[in-house]
Each structure stands twice: as structure tokens, then as C-alpha cells.
Amino acid sequence: MHFILKIAGLILSEISGVVVNQIFWVLLIVVFLLYKKSSNVEFAMLKTRLSLKDKMTSSLFNGFIGGLFGSFLVVLLGITIETYTPYSQGAFSSGITYIWIIAILLAMINVRYLCFSYAGGLVALISLIFGFPNVNVPGLMALVGILHLIESLLIWIDGHSFSVPIFVKKSGGKIVGGYIMNRMWPIPLVLTALAVPIGLGFSSISGETMPGWWPLLTQQHAFAYVMFFVPVVLGYGDVALTQSPEQRCRKSAYRLAVYSIILIMLSIIAARLQIFAFIAALFAPIAHEFLIITGKREEEEGKPLFDGSGDGICVLYAKENSPGREMNLEPGDRILTINNHVLYSENQLMEFLAAYPTYIWLDVRKADGSMKTLEWKNYREGIKSLGILIVPRNAGIYFEIDEGASPAVRLYNKFVKKNINISK
């Protein structure tokens, strides 16, 4: 327990520097601007925008929790990416710099490649083959695994928050309902770096003597280690068409957690067997791409949960403090009748409510197939709306699942090709 408290104290001491870290504040501004831009979809679908303040507060709080969790694992395993020397003057995070550079270049091909799995795997492979950059490959791949483990935790507890209902046109032309999940978390992460030798038979970190078994991820037991703070942003973007946002997030989080644990285990073995360094470097991008492709295929080819066709009308969303929300109408529910009048379309529901009835009851088939009768009354003003979003049979506004042109192609079309056309 003393060892655990010692690590926690060291981590909290390093993370306290987040308030004066300029890069972290820049990342916060970027997250804010991205959230603000995504609110256009919210307004198009809901005629209102979700609270930016609530989004940022949630992202900051959960990101801080994720940062503590990840930093603890980093220090516990003794993950190091490179060596610190007195001449580095604190700038000993070049391994992270290489990853960011390659990640940005990959993002020019496809935005979803802005991920440490792809960039980290490439940096590791280049280092193993050419010897440059000089990074600790097992430590680098373990860090990638921990970052994704943090991400899986955040997806599980917060990935579905502020999800936005949308109408989606599938490849066959059919319109279905779904949800967009778009979350970002600024992460205050503490890393360790290998420093100068201090003697034999024990290791220390920031002046504290550590147990003899530490660190797990390297055989350098007679060295000192220093801790440093690195701000990171993790993000999650997905679409739920065949299941609720909560179910979709939990499935994604579970798969990502399994992937992360396997990658961390491969990294620990790689610290002792060189061949596993190559295996971990290849596993990181290939397995991650497999997870992305599998999840996308499930949503595109699976049976949609929010289908406008069939009997009754399908509920996609119930607004906050609306009669529908108070009646416990949930995404995926199908309203079959209102006051014993069979419903075939949203227009019928609107026509019925145009008379401002003071009392209504709905026969509803829940997503699990069970039947319920829900009631609502408003004797003073009458009921003019349920405050729900219905999946239409033919939507006027819809989105298509398409990754579109890469940023590099868009920049080429905007500047280079445009100039060529002008010159002609």
C-alpha cells in the first residue's frame, strides 16, 4: 500500500503542472472549437444545440480520471521511451514528437489515421529496422496500449454522452435512424524517462527508492528514472445504427480493452525477447484497423434498430423535459396506437395532437419486444407535442456513411487544381 500511495503522490505532483502547461490549454481550445463545429448537426436535427459548457466540463473531468489511471499504469510498469541526459534540458519527449509528425502525415490520407496505433507502429518498425529514431520500442508500444486502454475506459463511461440523433441513407438507399457519438478528452499523462546510473541493486524514480521487481518493462534495474508531463487528447467517433449508443459504446470499449491488454502483454514480453518487438509493432496498426473495419461493417450490414418502415412509428429521440421523455419513451420504441387509433406515420400523430387532447395513452412495443401502455395528461393546456423525433419513411435531411476524400485530396482540389484551372 505504501508503494501505491508513493506512486499516486508522485503522479499528482507532476499533473499539478497542467494548469500552467501552454500545450494543454491549446488542446482545450482545439477541443472546444471541434465541439462548437459539431453542434451544427445538433441544430439541424434538434433545432437546438447541446451545452458546450456541459460537454467541456464532462470531457475535462473524465479526461482527468483517465489521465490518473493511465499515468499510474505507466509508472507501475516503468514505461520509458527514451533516455534523459543533462543536455536534453527537459526536451526528452522526441519519441512522442515523431509519433505526432507521422500521425499528422497519415491524417492527410485519412482523418481516422490520426491515431497512435498507426503512427506508433510505424515509428517502432522504422526504429527496429533502421535504428532511427532511437526509441525504446517495447516502451513505445506499451504506451500505445495504455492510451487505448484509457480510451476504452472513457468510451465505456462517457462515449455515449451527448450523442446526436441522425437520419442515415444506407448504401441500398434506405433511410434509417441512428446516433453520432463524438467525444474528446484532454488527458494529463505522466511518463517516465531513463536517466543516469545511480548504483547497483535498486532503482529509483524522482529520488524515491522503488521495489526490487520494478520496473516490469525493462531490465535496467540499476538506473534512475525521471517523470515528466505530456498533454494528450483522445477521441471517439462512431455511429450507432443497429443498437443504442450505450450498447454500441460498451461493445467498442470491450473490444478496444482486449486489444490494449494484448498489446501491453506483447510489449512486456518484447522487453525480454526482441522478436516480440516486431510482433507488437505489427499488431498495433493491423489489429486496430481490423477493429475499425469490423465495427463499420456491423453497422452498415446489420439490422437497423431505428427503422421507419414496418408497423407503427419508430422513436429515435425524446427531448429533455418533454412529455415523451417523462413517459419513458426510449430510442427504438415503436408507438403502435394513440388512444386506440392505429398509427402508420408521424403525420397521423401530429394530426391527432393538433386537437390538443388533455389525456392520451400509447400502446408501445419496446425494443426488446415487450408491450407497454404509457399515459400522459395535461388538463390545463392540452397536449400539443410529445417532444420526440420519429424515424420517417422518407427523410428530407439525412447523412451518408462515407469517409469522403482525404484531406490531402481536398487541399489539392482547393489550391493546386484551382490554380491550374485559372491559368488555363
How many domains? The number is 2
Helix content: 40-55%
Number of H- or I-type helical stretches: 11
Note the main sheet.
Answer: 8 strands, mixed
The percentage of residues in β strands lies in: 15-25%
C-alpha geometry: elongated
Question: Overview of this structure, please?
Answer:
- With 424 residues, the chain is α+β, with helices and mostly antiparallel strands.
- The protein has two domains: 300 residues, no CATH class; 82 residues, PDZ domain (Pdz3 Domain, Roll).
- 47% of the residues lie in helices and 21% in strands.
- The protein has eleven helices and 14 strands.
- Strands 1, 2, 3, 4, 5, 6, 7 and 14 form an eight-stranded mixed beta sheet that branches.
- A hairpin with a 2-residue loop joins strand 9 and strand 10.
- Helix 1 crosses helix 3, helix 5 packs antiparallel against helix 6 and helix 6 runs antiparallel to helix 7.
- The protein starts with a helix and ends with a helix.
- The C terminus is likely disordered.
Question: In a nutshell, what does this entry contain?
Answer:
This protein is α+β, with helices and mostly antiparallel strands.
Task: Show the helix and strand layout.
Elements: H1 2-15, H2 22-46, H3 52-77, E1 80-83, H4 94-107, H5 116-130, H6 137-158, E2 164-169, E3 175-197, E4 204-205, E5 208-209, E6 223-240, H7 245-270, H8 275-301, E7 306-307, E8 313-318, H9 323-326, E9 334-338, E10 341-342, H10 346-353, E11 359-365, E12 371-377, E13 388-390, E14 399-400, H11 407-423
Parallel strand pairs: 1-3, 2-14, 4-6
Antiparallel strand pairs: 2-3, 3-6, 3-7, 4-5, 8-9, 8-13, 9-10, 9-11, 11-12
